[in-house]
Structures are given as C-alpha cells and as structure tokens.
User: Fold this.
Amino acid sequence: MFFTGTLIPVENIERSRIFYEETLKQKVIYDFSVNITFEGRFAIISKDHFNNITKNKTGTSNQPVDKSLILYFETDSIDEMFNKLKQNNVEFLHEIEE
Assistant:
C-alpha cells in the first residue's frame, strides 16, 4: 500500500484551480475536470463529484465527508487490504465498488 496524495473537496473547481495555479503557483499535472491533481501529490475534487462517489455519507463525528481532508492510498491487493482494515475496525463510507 502506498500514499498517493491528499484530496481537498471544493465548491467551485474552476475558481479553486485558479487560486492554486495563480495565487499559490502550483502546477497542474492532471485535469479530469471534476478532479485536478497538482505537483506535490495533492488534488482538488468537486464536492458534487465527491458526494457522488461517497454516497454523501457522514463519518463517525457525523460530519459530512465533504468537510474533511482525505488522504488517498492505493494498493495492488484491494480485497486483502480491505479485509485487513475491517479487522482493525476502520469505518468505511461504502463497500468496494467498481
């Protein structure tokens, strides 16, 4: 398992992109329209898209997940990691989906 980056949910992805590019001088490396990744392993994601993939769930603090900062990890063995995390009482917003 390896750390891929940080996702920051934003209300207005176009305005946020301008802020990160022009004000903070960050360079875009991928633009998927609803998710824009910058050098330095962080990305902004539209709240609408984020709510769609998380099914607009709330976390244990009952706070909407789009008010959170998300650390994003990837693994080559998703089922194995999913089961390991479940065994360690990690709260999931939803089961594995394609």
Q: What stands out?
A: The chain has a mean pLDDT of 82. The longest strand covers residues 2-10. Residues 13-23 form the longest helix (11 residues). DSSP finds three helices and five strands in the chain.
